[in-house]
Design goal:
The complex is a heterodimer of chains A (488) and B (123).
Chain A lengths: L6 H10 L4 H19 L2 E4 L1 H17 L9 E5 L26 H8 L3 E6 L33 H8 L5 E6 L5 H7 L2 E4 L19 E6 L2 H11 L15 H4 L16 E5 H4 L6 H14 L2 E5 L7 H16 L18 H12 L2 H14 L4 H22 L5 E5 L14 H5 L6 H6 L3 E9 L2 E8 L5 H13 L13
Chain B lengths: L8 H7 L10 H7 L3 H8 L5 H18 L34 H5 L5 E2 L2 E2 L7
Antiparallel strand pairs in B: 1-2
Classes of the chains: A alpha/beta (488), B mainly alpha (123).
Chain lengths: 488, 123
């Protein structure tokens, strides 16, 4: 897959007979085989499943009625359950785990004819901002192999950036799609909480986790998100609010952006104060958006600084609860020769979880423990409401919010050792996660040879405004077409 | 999910800076250290001695970072437990899923005759 090829150009090639899905899949598998030793974007390449899926897609394409995603390869974050293939969550705990069912997201994309290439690397149980906590070794940023791709969905972002897959799924709990998208120079969207089913996603923090997608451009995000979205009775938090426009995109893949842009975009002053990297590039974005017809104004999100503390209480508390299921009894790692049931629990968990996962479990356990529950967990939930209220107030004045994605570009592998410093990576992405808002990261420049991202945030269920604004921006910029030269 | 119990007065007292019936103020907890051994027991999580020592230092710093939110006034603010605040969805009380025991137990570390095997619990 040389040069910039989005889904629409690949779909056109499939229909014109320039190549078959099997040939496209083989070419990508060969590229992965040649270069992924250096990148480590994949934990598991599912070659047989990929070629079988591609054969079926070619048969569908031959009938002439297949949708635009049929025959297009995709990589899945190794947190989505895939029946018949390993789902490790990048943890020793699940290193040999094969789920007995597939996630709704995986099923839906397979039904659309997409071809799974493999499962991508990530931070263990999605806990991290650098992909360094993976049990299977860090993933490397294709723009500079000595640097991190971001996290937790680092492998998916790196796979798209390296040209291993045109699109890849990810999940975002506090920024795990947007930050790696920015670091790897690709586009990524986290939809509204509840828009995409969490069924079959290994749970980290259930009130925050949301699936999304990485791609080369906004059109690709829209197409795949449309196919992933929709109510699912098997997810108790799945939203019943339908979006016929979004779900109909696979029949009509063109975003309608021919009309002049309308609306107001807010720039939160708290996000731009002391922003050292990217302020000039974001100022250029603002001018471009104004040139398209948007009005840009300053807004205030006054509780921004409280977002990281509140998030690490809520996410830790939910993680300590969700991860209690790994007990060495029903699935996952089990210690050797347990002396008692307690010993079985404690050693299986002690051996199966890595350092960052243990830190989050202990933080959450602390916040939920007797005497501290109100002072930490309930307090964090109150702060969460204030943060959401900040956004809701801002959205009475503006239609979208423009912000940075991360405070820096991709940092060196091993360059951030202190957990609290690492947590600051998410300062611009966590607030929208706490509020459950849809948000997107798009490439908007380069700083010292590394990609920079812009973040757009929309009101709940306003993915259309987000995608259309992003598509307009990409009509007038070419940052998203730039690709790294990856060497083995 | 929306019908959370009313917030206790304890938190309101903490918000206003008065003494609460929590064991001690956040600053004192940090000063006195965090009882990692107790947390390990609660979380059923074995740590090597060097890991426990590192966890002690890390948790000290993490809790200090988290305590910054204590300065945010939250009197009268209702906790937000779910980002969309939609009510829990109910369905008819009918069997809709059949558990495939064999499939689920195929990934168990130790199972026999339909049972999960664990060390002896009752003598």
């Amino acid at each position: 897959m040389q040069g910039f090829q989005n889904i629409q150009s690949l779909a056109a090639g499939l229909r014109a007979g320039d190549f078959s899905s099997v040939e496209l899949t083989q070419a990508l598998l060969a590229r992965i085989g040649e270069l992924d030793g250096a990148v480590n974007a994949f934990i598991n390449v599912t070659e047989d499943a990929a070629l079988n899926g591609a054969k079926q897609a070619d048969a569908e394409l031959a009938k002439g009625t297949a949708g635009p995603l049929c025959g297009i390869p995709i990589a899945h974050k190794d947190l989505f359950c895939t029946a018949g293939e390993l789902t490790t969550c990048a943890s020793k705990m699940l290193a040999n785990f094969t789920a007995p069912y597939s996630a709704t997201v995986v099923d839906k994309l397979q039904q659309a004819g997409m071809v799974m290439l493999g499962k991508t690397n990530m931070d263990e149980f999605a806990m991290g901002s650098s992909n360094e906590t993976s049990h299977f070794g860090p993933c490397h940023n294709p723009w500079d192999l000595s640097r991190v791709p971001g996290g937790s969905s680092g492998g998916s972002a790196a796979a798209v950036a390296a040209g291993f897959a045109p699109v890849a799924t990810g999940t975002d709990t506090g920024g795990s799609i947007r930050q790696p998208a920015a670091y790897c120079g690709v586009s990524g969207i986290k939809p509204t909480y509840g828009r995409v089913s969490r069924y079959g996603m290994v749970a980290f923090a259930s009130s925050l986790d949301q699936a999304g997608v990485f791609g080369r451009d906004v059109n690709d995000l829209a197409l795949v998100l449309g196919a992933m979205s929709g109510f699912d009775a098997r997810d108790s938090t799945s939203s019943e609010q339908a979006d016929p426009w979004l779900e109909g995109l696979s029949d009509n893949p063109d975003l309608n952006i021919s009309e002049p842009a309308k609306g107001t975009i807010g720039l939160p002053v708290e996000y731009f104060t002391d922003l050292s990297v990217g302020s000039a590039e974001l100022e250029a974005v603002r001018l471009q958006l104004e040139g398209m017809g948007y009005r840009c104004v300053d807004v205030s999100l006054p509780h921004t600084d409280a977002a990281i503390p509140a998030y690490y209480v809520i996410a830790g508390a939910e993680a300590s609860t969700n991860l209690s299921r790994y007990d060495g009894v029903r699935f996952g790692h089990r210690c050797e020769d347990p002396q008692s049931l307690e010993d079985l629990y404690e050693r299986s968990r002690g051996e199966g979880f890595g350092g960052e996962v243990k830190r989050r479990i202990l933080t959450g356990t602390y916040a939920l423990s007797v005497g501290y529950y109100d002072a930490y967990y309930v307090k964090a939930q109150k702060v969460r409401r204030l943060i959401q209220q900040d956004f809701l107030t801002a959205f009475t004045k503006v239609d979208l919010i423009l912000a940075p994605v991360a405070p820096t570009t991709a940092f060196a592998i091993g360059g951030v050792q202190d957990p609290v410093s690492m947590y600051q990576q998410d300062k611009f992405t966590i607030p929208a996660s706490l509020a459950g808002l849809p948000a997107m990261s798009l490439p908007c420049g380069m700083h010292e040879g590394l990609p920079l991202g812009l973040q757009l945030i929309a009101p709940h269920f306003h993915e259309r405004q987000l995608l259309e604004c992003g598509a307009r921006y990409q009509q007038q910029s070419d940052w998203h077409t730039q690709q790294p030269q990856v060497r083995a | 999910m929306t019908n959370e119990p009313p917030v206790s007065t304890k938190i309101d007292a903490a918000d206003s800076g008065q003494a609460s019936d929590a064991p001690d103020a956040p600053q004192d907890r940090i000063k006195d250290g965090i009882n990692v051994a107790h947390l390990q027991r609660l979380a059923r999580l074995a740590l090597e001695p060097d890991q426990a020592q590192a966890a002690q230092a890390d948790l000290h710093n993490i809790v200090a970072m988290i305590d910054a939110m204590q300065a945010v006034p939250t009197d009268g603010v209702e906790p937000l437990t779910h980002p969309l605040e939609t009510p829990a969805r109910l369905r008819p009380d009918r069997v809709t899923e059949v558990v495939d025991r064999e499939a689920f137990q195929s990934v168990a570390p130790a199972a026999d005759a339909g049972f999960y095997l664990v060390p002896k619990v009752i003598e």
